[in-house]
Design brief:
Elements lengths: L3 E3 L8 E5 L8 E5 L4 E5 L2 E5 L4 E8 L9 E7 L4 E5 L1 E5 L2 E4 L1 H17 L5 E4 L3 H28 L2 H24 L3 E2 L4 E3 L5
Parallel strand pairs: 6-11
Antiparallel strand pairs: 1-13, 2-3, 3-4, 4-5, 6-7, 7-8, 9-10, 11-12
Helix pairs in contact: 2-3
Length: about 200
């Protein structure tokens, strides 16, 4: 059974969140106001009323420089899309996590959408077809690794056995966590999936 995050039952003033998606350009800025989700990205800006948000997809998207990165794709009624990331570029070699601020912003956004009577489609993880393809690829890699492992045992290649065991453990930790967290699911505005939030 999936673990969920219960939302606090409280009213709050405007909440802001910002992140830099690259070293070049201004930060993407967001604010939750009484009017709705106020956003400013790359010289464009707008306000989406909470009940006009048509869909949110939460996912876990690690990258090489930040293994704990989360993403929210927010679709507006006008078919526009906003992307929020839980990390922000600081320098050419540093992508800093903003776990607490990202989590607080997403929890409050969902709470306000619930109060506004939003009918948004709330989903988590990868799209089902992409997830299925990822699981199939993972199974094929596991079968290939098992074959190599058996061959190494039969030929007495102990260095190969150790290498394959280490590689399999690292692969299972990295890719297995990604696939497990990104299992397709739906959720409600008052119970967010804990695996898809920092």
């Amino acid at each position: 059974m999936a673990t969920t995050v219960d939302l606090p039952n409280q009213t709050a003033a405007a909440i802001r969140y910002a992140y830099r998606s690259s070293l070049i350009g201004a930060a993407h800025q967001f604010e939750l106001t009484d009017q709705g989700l106020n956003w400013r990205i790359a010289g464009k800006s707008g306000v989406w009323p909470y009940d006009a948000i048509s869909a949110i997809r939460l996912s876990y998207r690690p990258v090489s420089m930040q293994s704990r990165r989360f993403r929210a794709d927010i679709d507006g009624a006008d078919r526009g899309r906003i992307v929020l990331l839980s990390t922000s570029w600081q320098t050419a070699t540093l992508m800093a996590p903003q776990d607490r601020d990202y989590r607080a912003f997403m929890v409050e956004l969902h709470r306000r959408m619930g109060q506004a009577g939003s009918n948004a489609q709330l989903t988590g993880g990868l799209k089902p077809r992409i997830y299925t393809a990822a699981v199939v690829m993972l199974a094929l890699v596991a079968i290939a690794m098992a074959g190599l492992f058996l061959r190494a045992i039969m030929t007495g290649e102990f260095a190969g056995i150790l290498f394959l065991a280490g590689f399999a453990a690292l692969f299972a930790w990295q890719v297995g966590g990604f696939v497990t967290r990104n299992r397709p699911r739906t959720y409600t505005s008052d119970h967010l999936p804990a695996a898809l939030l920092p």
